[in-house]
Specification:
Four copies of one chain form a homotetramer.
Chain A: E1 3-6, E2 16-17, E3 24-26, E4 31-36, H1 51-54, E5 63-69, E6 77-87, E7 91-95, E8 120-126, E9 131-135, E10 142-146, E11 150-155, E12 164-165, E13 173-175, E14 186-190, E15 196-204, E16 221-230, E17 239-241, E18 245-252, H2 255-274, H3 278-288, E19 301-308, H4 321-333
Parallel strand pairs in A: 1-4, 3-5
Antiparallel strand pairs in A: 2-12, 4-16, 5-15, 6-14, 6-16, 7-8, 8-9, 9-10, 11-13, 11-15, 14-17, 17-18, 18-19
Helix pairs in contact in A: 2-3
Chain lengths: 334, 334, 334, 334
């Protein structure tokens, strides 16, 4: 087993997908131990650290990477299996942020209101008890919420020579902000450029559906990822797989288009996996499909379309790479 | 315990919320045993019964009602607790329908494509084994899906002297098509007219998230509902409560506005229930809130915002009517 | 020439399309002299009359009607030619209104901001000089704007036994708020119920594109309309015609769907009028078509699709009813 | 007068804003004579040249540039005055394109329909008579349309180290596809990177509003541009000015957000230019503002907000650079 550990120095952090040189080369089959900073670059540490004061645009939502995957070429699929995602600190933060979030005027949904108040919440992270503790700012109210660590941002370099801010989710991945991206999940990303150039960041101790205020329980993470490459198989939009489900994603505006992309991909993928004709697959997904909301606050919104593998009959998903990576992950952790 | 049984004759079915006389008077505290027809009025019985041939616009999505609730006035809240929802036949149907569904041109998302093929699927319903059996139309593929019976449509007469087709969800309820509306759930509806004038229909043996093809596993239902009235308490959008969660809904286009409405209502409701200031409630919902998709195919789309009651501290929801109706339902069924 | 004059008393005003009895019977071929109140029912008369205080929901946007057109049946088309639209007072008003407008949180685009300030502007209307005079409220700035009188609201009773608030534009017409609906224009409305049951209201001395703050230069109007009926010809969405153009409308959310509906209708209508196949008509409209924005602030948004008749070759639009009504209007005014 | 002529070789064409080296240095005050290729790179020349066969993604919508403007720094504004835009050939083309356009399923508004037929129309361009001649493909129908030459694409390198496909309009400009961008207009673009790095392309002999089928009358152009730099003045979204109007733009999805951005910018800009408080400016724009539709087919949609300068009182726009560049253009052409 080949293991690669990497912890970026501040100046090695990336703020785009595309447009950067690789920080390291990774061979398929490698287990990676990665450190990722939180979306504020670790600068928001107390309730007095207002992000608009301590952070500087566009140096937000840093990712660890990009990594050049040996042998990856356009038309291939990169598989990243998340073995472990562990909060790296005993605290985390969340904030409102001027002109960001679903229930506020933004630069896109532009209105004449003054911004909502900028406010920071600091959570205690207790890994032993597996909780994050919420503390109200204007009262003594406090409540423990179960941790469910995930990465908001994972992606590869985009097609068409684009470079995109890490905050933007699209066909290359990016800031999808779906709680489905937790340990035990394999993410499939279509390769657009030689080496794939993937990056990971934006760890969340937990996140509500849609990340309605714009930020989750933002936490630096120690994350273990198993990397594999599937040659000659293209993937149109990021997909995921866990032991029980296949998942497609879509990122767009308006939100129904994110829904359409994800459901369209799940229908056509189901058709491929089962041999069902398209309308028969449409029907099956219509009754048995789930649609977890990713983000409804970023520059594109994200929806996930999810189907239990039990309903697909006997079929093989991406050459069974999920099972192999899961086994590799188990070997690593044991 | 007062029990009212009602089974509409075909000519008693309603196709709008508002604009109709009551079919019966109901006193708060009543248990109702209702029969509801499926969304096709029971006319689609075989795979050869194409809905565009056997059904006639606007006689689609019939509801049972409206019921006049004794004493209900604008500004009150009607509470409907679903005690039991039982498929009434050993079969159910689903279909594509020209210009209806999320992955097809519609009269609203108007395009130049010919309609998708109209096709009917007939499901076997097995109550003993609690499954609906899907059969592909173009192959031998078949799979059992677990039943999770629900009502797609529940609502009251709208405000402002409007009458709306039952297919449309809005602030008065209507065709929200959320799988959350299953047995064990109490629905809260703001009363807009004297008597509330509520109706129920559109039973689904089960439904995927978003009802992507436009129809679910459509089934006539035998449904038991406990009715209560909360005087002097207004409810801006339909809300729900089960033993573990409070839920708000929003219905609008685009889908992000349905999300916004539902999350806005959940945030302000959470603030009321906990005494948290608005931004503190926004933060709590942002991390602990769920957002199950209702429909993404009707004339308005529907989202649900859902929060575990465990995170609200000691609080009382709608004068604890859910607990009382749940007890009444248990007394009825035992 | 048959002339019918009608001025509603306050209690005769209507607030819905559908759900009301006719105020009068009108025979095709009649010239109608109508008085319409402004959208505030004439209650906002000074800058101190805040609409949220002097008006009461749902008694907003009153219309004059409904009128029962002799012989009109579902499947016919009602033609209303606007001969004259004349402001009835030497003042008019415009306002911001809490939760209404394009650059503010609304009940649908729900956000956590406090409402924008409610403010009233009073315009001087000078018919001789054909101007409305804008006066800033917080400074001495003043400017004359050319009058371009129009009706924001015109429609018939909706299909499917619906009744809709007059504020809502949809396939039956309603509050489309397009400046294209000025004198000299013939509006075509598909008849959904026996008698058509049309109403008119919401006069604007002038209006910007999209009515961005939610209200225009709101004015009572003395309006002359020539009424005709086209038997056996259906019209899917409101259409308009002036001496030089044919126009289709669409009303929906999001705004691109309003655009799609209007352009789709113009493309298929162009195909009918010219004999061009659908894609050839699509191409012609793509290069020569205009797309004036109607409203971007109401419960549905409205777009107009507009094409010079000069590009259609020799063709006859709606049996040349526009030319006949124009001539009838000229005879009336001379 | 300094004049710079530049005609790119095929390999010098650019397909992104950002991410490329400059093709030339330009000093403020220069008049540029530029050749731009059409959006198909000149490869679609007959009705048999289907773009999906003769073009290759992502080599679509080439632009001429980027040009490095001497002294331009982030926070400045680049002013480009279009002196002349002249079709370079006596023919032009337009096409449908699979999964592109407003009335078809796309990769974003993903549906299960087969693509619409791909078809090419070839227009005759007659500069003497100032017309483009449309020829139907499936009949003998033909019609002359007046030329109104414009550039669909103009922009600078984006902020935040992004590189974007030229097809995408956003705050940096890009493929806004507005017919307002014709000769006589000055475009103002906020500078994001040292040198501004602007490019121009996508000439249209004429274009309907929204470019509904996805392409206009696509033509190579000989274009004369006067370049100026406004130091220390930032511009949030592309703006335009002609002799009679100021204009703001917004590009986003859904279309109402493009409208909101453009109107918001026009309101705040009007407030700056006149000294009106924000709500007074909101009111003035609401009544006197226009809203020409840009594109409703690209990856973001574009709206323009437009106000006659006559209503602004005595004020100076961008240090009167439009008047100076217009004079320089006149000097050049005379």
């Amino acid at each position: 087993m080949s293991v690669l550990s990497y912890r970026p120095s501040p100046e090695e952090l990336s703020y785009t997908f595309g447009g950067r040189q690789a920080v390291a080369e990774v061979r398929p089959g490698t287990i990676m131990e990665l450190y990722t900073e939180d979306c504020f670059g670790g600068r928001v540490r107390t309730v007095d650290d207002l992000p608009s004061r301590v952070c500087e645009f566009p140096f937000l939502n840093p990712v660890t990477g990009p990594f050049h995957v040996t042998g990856a070429e356009p038309g291939d699929t990169l598989a990243l299996h998340f073995v472990k995602i562990t909060p790296a600190r005993d605290w985390a933060v969340s904030t409102t942020f001027p002109h960001f979030g679903a229930l506020t005027t933004t630069h896109t949904t532009a209105m004449l209101h003054a911004p909502l108040e900028e406010r920071v919440w600091r959570y205690d992270i207790d890994l032993d008890r597996n909780v994050a503790v919420y503390h109200a700012r204007k009262s003594d109210f406090s409540v423990e919420l179960p941790l469910d660590p995930m990465h908001g941002t994972v992606g590869v370099a985009p097609a068409a020579n684009e470079a995109r801010m890490t905050i933007t989710p699209d066909a290359h991945g990016g800031n999808m902000d779906t709680p489905e991206l937790r340990a035990g999940v394999t993410v499939y990303l279509g390769v657009n450029v030689e080496g794939a150039m993937f990056s990971i960041g934006d760890g969340h101790g937990l996140q509500g559906h849609g990340e309605v205020c714009g930020t989750a329980v933002e936490s630096a993470m120690n994350t273990v990822v198993a990397v594999e490459l599937i040659k000659g198989v293209a993937t149109p939009w990021p997909r995921m797989e866990d032991d029980l489900h296949v998942m497609s994603t879509g990122s767009a505006r308006p939100l129904e288009d994110a829904y359409r992309i994800s459901q369209h991909d799940l229908v056509t993928w189901t058709s491929e996996l089962t041999g069902l004709d398209t309308l028969d697959a449409y029907q099956l997904v219509s009754q048995a499909g789930q649609a977890p909301v990713g983000n409804v606050c970023d520059t594109n919104y994200t929806m996930v379309a999810k189907l239990p593998k039990a309903y697909l009959g006997a079929t093989t998903v991406y050459e069974s790479v999920h099972a192999r990576l899961r086994a590799a992950g188990s070997a690593y952790t044991s």
